Amino acid sequence: MGDHFDRDLVVETSSGTVRGFLDRGTPNWRGVPYGRVEQRFHPPVPALPGEPVDGRHWGPICWQLPIVAGRSPSSVFPDAAESEDCLNLNVWSPGPDPGARRPVLVWLHFGSRAYGAGSTPMIDVWHFAARHNAVVVTPNYRLGPWGWLYLGALDPEFEDSANLALLDQILMLRWVKDNIAAFGGDPDNVTVFGMSSGASDLGALLGAPAARGLFHKAASYSGAQAPMLEKDATEFAEEFLAAAGPLAATAAELAALPNVGLRTVHRRLLKQSVSRAGGPIIIRYGPFVDGSVLPKAPLDALADGLMAGVALLVSNVAEEAGVWDAWGAVDHAYSRVFAGSDQSVSHEEKVEQLSEYRWVGPARKLIAAHHQGGGTGWMQKFDYAPTTNWQTALSYPEVARRPVHGADVASLFLDPEGEVGSEDDRAVAALDQAALLALARDGRAPWTPWSPDNQTPHRIAAAAH
């Protein structure tokens, strides 16, 4: 990326003055604070104005954690600064014209809520601003135990520690509403889109009353898993604390651990989980129905019409569970999920059933609840294996040429007018992005909305040759 400082790209925000630069000719502001973490395991507070922000540099990202034993996350820049006080965002815009009122896209990244960031070499949102006259925001927020460990049932001092990462995201959306016009964006036309865990975070935001009115369109890519119950969040906190011994014996001692200590506890818990399960397993950090941030299950809130005015796009890839072949985990996952079923079915059938159980079924429930509550939604099926699949970058050649979970990331963020990838890659990317952009601009995808009588998803694929 370019690093030419432009002294004219100065924007006044509630966080203070931010000075931007030109990224390949397009205005960009990086590391803009929207909030602060004053105390570990407590809600965020708004950022305060301070010294002018030099927006040429990425802000700190949350501490990165592995999700598979023996593998370290590798989706961020090698020199990224890690910190639990990571509440900052990046903005790209055709120009900081307060009267432009361009559609705003807010990206919630993937990473199993344990790794990833708003700045990562495999995600380049530049073309949305440079080619499509949109303003794009990529935020950082707390991950892993910093954002998702609920200690309220263990110590009343931490009763406000529920769904901290969701509170980070809500604070970020409030900042966008208050400040994005100065960057040329329309605060009344904000589309939140996310993939995998980012999409599941979006699903939780759709059930959060405090998020109502902060975004107006939503696009969920391969992530609609329902939040946990409070008892599950409490049980996980007890397991985390047990794995901390002798580093910490109480919630307060956990809060006082250095960050490397929390990483150590995570790794211990990961190894213990693998040992108990008898095979690969991913620790699931995530939201739960706490009665406050999430007063009820998001599906129930949607069915009650909480977000009826939000246009919703729900997308899955053709072979979601095929990603588990990267870790040799399909057979193990099938035996756990479908313990009483015939284990001799074909590998393809196992992938299909796991995909329905883990991804496609929850997506269908999400859009059905939204429809019941008076909302309008569209479903799509991404059926293509990009040659630029990010799985290759993560050294998973077993799945790099299949339309598995995460394959569509390569299309969402490929510049269709650039030179990277094949002709089919760019053509499919244009189709995939056209649906998102139509949603952001016009509030609808370019095909018939989902209904109980029209449940077949629109297929995104390469044209037949």
CATH class: Alpha Beta
| Rounded mean pLDDT score | 93
Question: Which residue ranges are poorly predicted, with pLDDT under 50 across at least 5 consecutive positions?
Answer: none
How is the main sheet built? 12 strands, mixed
Which structural class best describes the helix and strand composition?
alpha/beta
Family: Belongs to the type-B carboxylesterase/lipase family.
GO molecular function, one term: hydrolase activity
InterPro entries: AB_hydrolase_fold, CarbesteraseB, Carboxylesterase_B_AS, Type-B_Carboxylest/Lipase
Keywords: Hydrolase
Written overview of the protein:
Residues 8-323 form the Carboxylesterase type B domain. The chain has 465 residues and is α/β, with parallel strands linked by helices. It has one domain (4-460): Rossmann fold, CATH 3.40.50. The chain is built from 13 helices and 14 strands. The chain has helices at 126-132, 144-148, 164-179, 197-205, 230-244, 251-256, 259-277, 298-303, 330-337, 347-372, 390-393, 409-412, 423-442; strands spanning 4-13, 16-23, 26-33, 35-36, 45-46, 53-54, 88-92, 102-108, 135-139, 185-195, 217-221, 311-317, 377-382, 458-460. Strands 1, 2, 3, 6, 7, 8, 9, 10, 11, 12, 13 and 14 form a twelve-stranded mixed β-sheet that branches. Helix 5 packs across helix 7 and helix 9 (330-337) packs across helix 10 (347-372). It is globular, with a radius of gyration of 21 Å. It starts with a strand and ends in a 5-residue tail after the last strand. 53% of the residues are buried. The model has no long low-confidence stretch (mean pLDDT 93).
